[in-house]
Each structure stands twice: as structure tokens, then as C-alpha cells.
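[RESIDUES AND BACKBONE]
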Amino acid sequence: MNAMMIAGFLFFAGIVVFISWYRRGSARVNTLNNLFFANRSLGFVLVGSGLLFTNINAASIIGENELTYTNNMTVMAWGVSSVVAMLLVSEFMMPLYLKMGIATTPDFLTARYGADVGRLVSVIFLISYIFNLLPSVLYAGAVAFNGLYHFSDVWGISYTTVIVVLVWIMGTIGCIVSIIGGLKAITKLDILLGVGFFCGGILLPFFGLRYIGHGNIGNGLQQVLTKNTWHLNSIGSAHDAIPFGTMFTGMLLVNLYYWGTEQYIIQQVLSSKDLETSQKGIALAGLGKLVSPLLLNIPGIIAVHVFANMHNTAEAFPRLVSQVSPPFIAGFISAIVFVASLTTFNAGLNSSSTLFMLNIYKPWLKKHSKPVTEKKLVRTAKQFEILICLLAMFIAPLIMFVKNGFYTYVQIVNGFFNVPIFTIMFIGFVTKKVPGVAAKVGLGFFITCYACTQLVVNTHIHFLHILAILFVLTCGLMLLIGKLYPMPVPYTLKLNNLVDIRPWENRYYFAGILLILMIALFVMFSPLILAK
């Protein structure tokens, strides 16, 4: 194991630890509002970096580069096209959330459909986090570290054992950080990660091209642009991992769910000082998504020219880093992956505890008239984080046995939770009389039908198209129920804003710039320019 590589890891990790400790402040995390929402005091840089790096983690770094290596640049659509969804959320959904003063997505569903629906969706969120989000982040981080440091070879033990050990190390560290620092400590990590991420996004392609060109970056770039150019194509056909048409069907719905409904994402925005700050933060995160292919996709393209074939394609990114980068830089990039894993894992833990405490535990206490001090609530929240962390660490190593690629697995499993929840949210936004029973029936119908298409019947239809079809059918079913059994008293929005809800005046100018840059990226990585 190279000493300079370890030094590079300790360099960036040490900076993160030192600054986080130095800037920790004197305030203790002794209230739920502080633990979960940083006392609703975050500025737009903290909001934007929190959004971006809660989204970008080891799972996306490993998974997207794997799909770019095995397919092409079509996978960049997940991140780049999400700018459209982010702008829609910024304009329509966040003002509504902040006007209501909600703390969780199920709070809106409780107000709109009733407590049963809010509680049901809270349980679905928790199942999704425990069985998919948290384990996938830990597993991806473990794969990355084994690929970078070759622990299985150095220690002379099996690959499976190494993954288990690394999962438990990362999970333990992440849990400690989340419990001690709360949401504000997590978002501060994201700012440091942002600096490291974009430095790594420049350095890794630089060294990769130099490696391909045998010391000459120009020769390396020429080889990438003239050989295997189909990998540079972002306009997917029906045979690609991400057909182009899916961006306008299921992918748009998934992104709307993710940026406007996913609890561990919107919790970053709900912690902002005011609506203007939240909209600036979303715009900043959108700009970051347009730059993110530097580290999420371009290394996969370079790996095509470095490795003729790989037995475990999930290691395309980490193997590339260790192969082409100087040891110190490889260690630096490995620290970026490590911190990226921690930020998403910690945000998932924090939001899981938020959902449990605010939507399940506190209502139960109120129902049974059991008074509890704020100190006891904070202690219970931290105990719950420890519990779900342990569950995630047991589940994570099992992901190594899935087929069709790690990232595809994550997205398919997400389909059981994301668009079904967004569907009932959408109907709740646009109607006033559809009752709670329609939401319950809609959830059951959507999840059951999706399960049949993925586990029982092979429809030969891309799962993103299936999500869009089921979205339309479920909306129709809910509207029919609302027509036959409308709510006797229509829903009315009750204002309870805790922060200033005046919007950002210049948001449309920045939205236009982001959309132009997004389109330019797709044109660049198309047969019109680079993928000739």
C-alpha cells in the first residue's frame, strides 16, 4: 500500500476534520430543531452545497462511471436533466412548503389527506432508506476503497470479507458524525467536499489523458475523441441504458420526486433562512450538477481506453484512479469519495430520524398523553439513528450479488418508492376534493403493478417508461375515486410560514442560463459534435 496515497487521503481528510472541529461553535445539539434543521439558519451556499453533495456520493460516482464504461454518456442524463426538475421545484413546490411551515414531506400529506396517509408514507420512506439508500451508499464506498487500495490483495482475504469490513468502518464513522453534529455539521462537510470534488474533477481527467497519451495530454485527448466515440454519445437509443425518450417520461418524474419530495433532500432546503435563500441554493446546486460529469462520467470514458475489459465493472472508477494518478492525488481523490459517502449517509440517517420522531414517535406520545422533555427526544432520535445504521450495515454487503449493474439496481429499486409517493403528492397539489382513501389505493395500485413488471412479467419496456405509464394510470384512478367519493369539505391551504417567503427576484435569469448550459451539454456529447 503506497505511503504517498495514504498521505493524500490523510491530507484532505485531515483538513475536513480540522475545519469541522474549528468551526463547530459552542452551541450544543440539544433540540430537535437544531439536530434536524440547524435552527432554520442556513445560507444559500450551505443549502446549495448540501443539496448537491447529499445527492452526489460514492454510489453515484461509482455507478455512473460504471454505466459510462459499459454503455456511454447517456447516463449523464440522470444528473444533467435534473436541472429542469430542480427549477420547477424551486418555483412551485418550495414556496408551498415554506408557506405551510412543514418539517417533512409527510406533513403535507397529513394536512392534505389525513394522518393515516402521512404515517404510511413516513413508513415507506423509512423502508426505502433502510433497504436501499443507506446500504447502497455504504456498499459503493466499500467498493471504491477496495478498488483504490486493493485491500483484498494487501490483506490476503476474500473480496466479500473486505467489503463487509469497510462497510462497518464507514457506517460507524458516519453514525458518530451524524449523532454529534446534526444537520449543520453535515452541511459544513459539504462545502469542503465541493472544493475537493471540483479539484478532483479537473485533476483526474488531466492525469487520465496524460496516461492514455503516454505523457502527452494532446495525444490522449485525440485518442478519446477518435476511438470508441460511441461512448461519447449522450443521446440514447432504445438499446442504451438510458434511452433519450425516458428523460421526458419516467426520468422527469423521478427527478421531480427526488428534488421536491425526497425527505433527505428537501430537509436541506427547509433549513434555509428564507425562500430567497432556498431558491438561490437550488440554483447553485443546479450549476453544480452541470459540472459534475467531470467526475461522474468522464473518468468512465477514460477507463474505456485504459482497460480493455474488467471482470467487476463497478471498479472502473477506483481502478482508474489508482492506475493513472500519482499516489498522492489518488489518495486525495479517495478522501473525496470517502467524505462524499459520509455526507449522503449522514443526511440519510438524519432524515430517517426526522421522519420517525416527527411523524411517528411524537404523534404516538401525544396520543397517549406522555410528556417527554426535549432532551429525552434528542436522545431517542440519536438512538434511532444507531438502530437504522446497524440495519444498513448488515444489508449493504448483500448488494454485491445483484445483476445488471449496481447503479441500475439502485434506480430500479427506487421505483418502488419514489414515483408512487410523487403521484399522490401531485394529485394533492392540483386537486382539493380527492380523499385520503384515493391516496392509499393509489399507492397500493402503483407499487403492486410496478412490482409485477419488474419481478413477475417481462414487459420489454424500459422501467422509466413503465413508471410514467403507471403515473398516468394512478392519477386517473385517484381522480375517479375523487369524483365518486369527494371530500365533503375541500382542502384549504393553511399558512404557517416560519421564515420570510418573498421569492428571489433574479431567479428567472439564472434559470435561463442553467437551461441553456444543460442543452449545450447534450449537444456537445452527441453525434453532432463529439460522438461523430
The chain has a mean pLDDT of 87. The two ends are 41 Å apart (CA to CA).
